[in-house]
Specification:
Elements: H1 6-17, E1 22-26, H2 29-36, H3 47-57, E2 60-64, H4 66-72, E3 78-81, H5 96-105, E4 114-117, H6 125-133, E5 139-142, H7 152-157, E6 162-166, H8 169-178, E7 186-189, H9 191-222, H10 226-234, H11 255-268, H12 274-299, E8 310-314, H13 329-339, E9 343-347
Parallel strand pairs: 1-2, 3-4, 4-5, 6-7, 8-9
Antiparallel strand pairs: 5-6
Helix pairs in contact: 1-3, 9-11, 9-12, 12-13
């Protein structure tokens, strides 16, 4: 498992709990030292217990450096890439780390190894990795993760589906066998489809959230109760209750990045994805709408001044139950309030005061 971050550590611990022998490699020596002692930084329910269980059983170990891990385990059958793919210039996913690691490990991979991308990557990345490896004896498989922060272990061990994209049937079946004990529906497809499934799923959820926020604004204007409206439509099995909670907008480490990346894919192929672009625009507008609601609450007017007004912000992370501040809508609203002259005080029980 290359990468001991949010996805890599969860995947490593969960795969070890399924009976597999897992070596997790990372460049962060301090983090690996803590993990080897059973200390997990991520506030994920159940993750610490699985890491300790894996260490005690001997099925899970941590090693600094990818080359060290592969040199120490020449019998490696599957190598998972759980590496950061941050938003780059123009919204395109930055594959610098992925390509660097692939180039580094290429010559070290045992014959017959399957390289699996678990990171969220643009369509065509599996083909690019295959090109960089330049190894006919090594297969590349796309196996995107669908883990929600705050319930990652639950999502891994009780998935809605497992997606495996490969040009080699043997490689696809080998990866699928790793999850056999979970008994989840498995979608076997080609790499490009698997890569697009992850983006399509996240962007659909983003559009659903933007939709419910737009409906919430309409409710305010016509005198309807948004909670009753969402309950009423959520009982429709075609719609469902999930992602129908209005709020200050969607954020976090996935939805904004994936929405921007999918737009880049669409633009690169001369497709105007107007529906997704509208969802992004609606989300951006939502933060200003929250500020307008604060203005009305404080001054009685949407144009009222917030200069020198003391405001308390309860909650800073991008969603409850996590300690993740990345692209948090709460911080976006806070920035706008500060620009409006407000004096801000904030508290979030999930965030250390020194952050």
């Amino acid at each position: 498992m290359v990468g001991a971050g949010y996805v890599g550590l969860t995947s490593a611990a969960c795969l070890a709990s399924l009976g597999h022998q897992v070596v997790c490699a990372d460049v962060d020596e301090a983090k690996l030292t803590r993990l080897a002692a059973g200390q997990v930084d991520n506030s994920e329910p159940g993750l610490s217990e699985l890491v300790v269980e894996g260490l005690q059983s001997g099925r899970l170990s941590f090693v600094q450096g990818t080359t060290t891990a592969l040199t120490g385990r020449p019998d490696a059958e599957v190598v998972f890439l759980c590496l950061p793919t941050p938003m780059g210039i123009g919204g395109v996913a930055d594959l610098t780390v992925v390509e660097s690691v692939v180039t580094e490990i290429g010559p070290l991979l045992p014959t017959g190894t399957v390289v699996v991308t678990k990171s969220t990557v643009p369509v065509g990345t599996a083909a690019r990795i295959t090109e960089l490896l330049d190894r006919d004896d090594v297969a590349v498989v796309s196996n995107p993760e669908f883990l929600r922060e705050g319930s990652a272990v639950e999502d891994f061990l009780g998935p809605d589906r497992i997606v495996i994209g490969a040009d080699s049937q043997d490689a696809a079946e080998r990866v699928g066998a790793l999850y056999a004990r979970l008994g989840a529906p498995t979608v076997y497809t080609n790499p490009a489809s698997a890569e697009l499934i992850k983006y399509a799923a996240n962007c659909f959820l983003a559009m659903k959230l933007s939709y419910v926020n737009a409906v919430a604004e309409l409710c305010e204007r016509v005198g309807a109760e948004i909670s009753d409206v969402t309950e009423g439509i959520g009982h429709d099995r075609r719609i469902g209750q999930a992602f129908l909670s209005p709020g200050p907008g969607w954020g976090g480490s996935c939805l904004p990045k994936d929405a921007a990346a999918l737009l880049q894919v669409a633009d690169a192929h001369d497709f105007e994805f107007r529906l997704l672009r509208a969802a992004i625009d609606t989300n951006t507008r939502q933060r200003q709408r929250m500020v307008d609601k604060v203005r009305v609450g404080v001054t009685g007017r949407r144009t009222g001044s917030l200069s020198n007004t003391r405001l308390c912000l309860l909650g800073l992370t991008f969603k409850a139950g996590t300690d993740d501040l990345r692209d948090s809508p709460a911080l976006g609203v806070a920035a706008l309030l500060r620009q409006a002259g407000a004096e801000l005080y904030a508290h979030d029980p999930g965030v250390d005061s020194d952050r």
